[in-house]
Predict the 3D structure of the following.
Amino acid sequence: MPTAPHPQNTDELYQALQENDRRPYGRTRTVTAEELVDTADQFAEPRPLAHALLALQKAYNYGSEPRKSPVVFARLLTLFDEQPDVFDERLRHTLFWRFKWVAHALVALPEIPLASLRQWLTEMRDRYEKAALGLQPYYGQAYQLADHVGEDTDLAYELWAGRPRTQLSDCEACEICGRALHHLTAGDDERALRTWEPVLAGKESCQEEPARSVSYALLPLLRTGGADRARELHLTGYRACRRNPSMSGEVGRHLEFCALTGNEARGLELLAENRNLFDDVESPLDQLGFLTGVEVLLQRTEALGHGGLPAAGYPGRTWTVAGLRAEVRGRADDLAARFDARNGTTAHTDRRRARLDRAPLLDALELTLRSRGLDDVTPAAATAPIPAPAAVPESLPELITRARELEEQAHPDATACWAQLRTLVAAADYAHPDDPAVGPPARLRADLLDDEASRAGHKDEFAASAALYEEAASRYDEAGAPGHAALARAGALLATAQAAPQDAERADGADGAEAKAATLTAAHAALVRLHEETSGLAPFQEARLLRLRTSALGLRLEATRSEEDFAPVFAEADLLLAFATRHDIAGQVSTAHLLRASSYALVGDLPAAVTETDALLDRLKAHGPAWHLPRTLGLRARIRLGLKDAQAAHADLAEAVRLAAEWPADTVDTAGLHGDLARACMHLGRPEEALRHLTRSAELELRHGTRFDAFCTYSNAAQLSLDLGRIEDCIALLDSLLAEPDVAAGELDDRLVAQLRLARARALHAGEDLKAATAEYAALAAESAGWDDDPGSHAMIAAETAVLLAESGEFGRAREAADQALAAHAREPRYEQLSSCLRELARLQAQQQGAEGLADALALLADAGRIADEARTAGYEARGRDLDSALAYEHGRVNAYASEYETALTALDKALTLLGEPEPESHDRDQVGEWAECVRLAAVVEGLYLERPAPALTRLDGAVSRLGVLGHAEEAEPLVSLAASLRDEE
């Protein structure tokens, strides 16, 4: 492991210790601490050595290495005995505090005899008495040992809990947890929860709390009807302990909670995220707690019939649920037996058995926005199996015949038949039926390729779809099926045309649309030629060719939205409609009406589009096909959304989802229906319902194999949950997505992954986890610096990173990030984001540093001024606050923080001039609020700091009067309150 240069003197040693203290606990921090002890030994100065030894013991303690902690403490104790003057009051306090750490470390090692544990507690008591220290901490350790052994706990508890706390007592949060666990062991859930309340509510905390208490409180909460709070605490508590070796027991209890609430799939996901704990936890006691929680999860999963699922376990091999459970059970049983043998009781075996015998407390508790069952747990590359139709023929000839009949009708059940046939044909012992009605093997293989091509097209994988269609056409030729070969070639033509615009769409504006239109025009001409040159087509084949011709023109209309492209679509749709009606091909009659309705919508004639869908729905209800109803209702709903009738759209979509449940989800686009329902809900002001539909849509897309679309939808769901203030839900959702195997392996689009990580960083920021948010932002800023094709995104990320660094007081690094943002902005302007960032940086620096930070704050505002000038020159209109007035306001605020009150007042007056007084037609409450806030701050500066209350009151009274006339009483309230305060001081 690489190490930093060794300190050359004690000053450098202390600096290195401080730097190492900022590192997360783990091998890097521990190895560095060991090296610093070696370095301190060379200086022959006892005090730096004492500091280095204390730092090393801390690394061992929180790095879950209990065997090494007592050895280090023995050196410290020897140093204290030999040179007590080295230990000032602070070091002495730390030394006596660490007696408890050693007691805890020794308890965690089953090879340490029970007599040695008691001997250590006697040593602790003697030392405390000699130093005239209160004994409550000693009795606390005595109780913990009694609880560990499982004997005389009530007496030990009373001897500890009945004594007053001392300066060396465990922190209040830890002692609360100890008392609550005693009540929990006694079977009193409610008393335990009452005791825990200050910790669970966040009023008491420490390094390990509230994460430790939360993990224990989850099941009592469920047993006492607090499922909602248990869910909330699971999300926050798990995030605080995940992947942390010193909190592996807590992770195990979260896994157990998942297993007992119907969330086995989430439990397996969290197990994978914590795979490092199988290798990193060196404390046998922590291992026992973790492994027992793992076994509860695996046992429950296997009992539900999923023992063959993959599971993350010990490194070096792959595991199934059943295989890992057997391994974990053997290791955990051995650990429990070793502790019981040492202690002379059966406490650990009994406790472990009680956890394993516990029945599920709830059948299903929705823990996250991404609720999945064990049936959804498959490798990333696999998709969920397609449900079989109601009756699948048992014989192979009948299955092939049935699949082809359903395919002719475009019936949704054909998909499952083809899936079953694909499995049979892939088998090593497959034998093709010798049946003239079935045809040769080449015909069946062509059918399967055709189906695969169609599915690829539905996932927008057009290049792959075109290649598969071409291969299918060759097989059809080989099998003597020219009509099918023509249809496959037609599919390849359209798929190729759709693949080309994916490149054209990257071109700018009209050029991209024109290129796409030209490609589709050529494809339509080729389809017409193919149709004219192919004879002997069956009616269903000819109808499909007409449908493909219409689709090509419909896609062109979608690209251009041009009136001149409207008539050709209708002409082709009418040809299809007439032909399908004549030959009674119900599915293509419906398709023709759908294409007509879509064309009306594309050119903006929404009433005509509704009329068309109304007529089609009447026809479908009378004549079918029934599987077209969900799609038609979905189209009418989208049109009604365009007509701003969200209520009617919602009703259509709800009915569409209900009907879609009768068919395989991917064949009727149930995912799309849920996505549209989310939009309708947002229009109706029902965001919580919208969030449910978004997550449902995303999960269906994931099952269907359209992973890119699924992750985009999940990204929208994460943003909505953040907007709703459901921060932990947002973080848990994003953590789940980012833990997906293909994401971890770098197989998903890197920009989409970056978008998910950015959303997570914003959620961490909103949740006030500045350390984690800053780390994520900094990593994203470093990665996005290499996005030469997208400097604007880098500018945005670097700007947000700068603000977060400034909030943490790291103004030097914040300035560096801001400079990166400015450099990227020069290549692709982001006027509002950069102006907002620079203004916020200036505010934070002036607020935290006052006059000392004024020069740097003003330099930041100067940069913001240049951006405002650039935006004005470019004719850019801000979507939010006006850049010039916002800048003037910030000049006022920054100067006020630095006690430059006259300058501040001048700037605020300028801001008010730029904003202008609200007018009767001012309906923008944000703008009115901005003006009122500017008035308020100007009055504060003028009346309080410059001690000129009269003009300040005149200013306030005028603003209050104006706001009152305009009906903005809420905005006037702070001004009324300030005016009253100023009058009281006169």
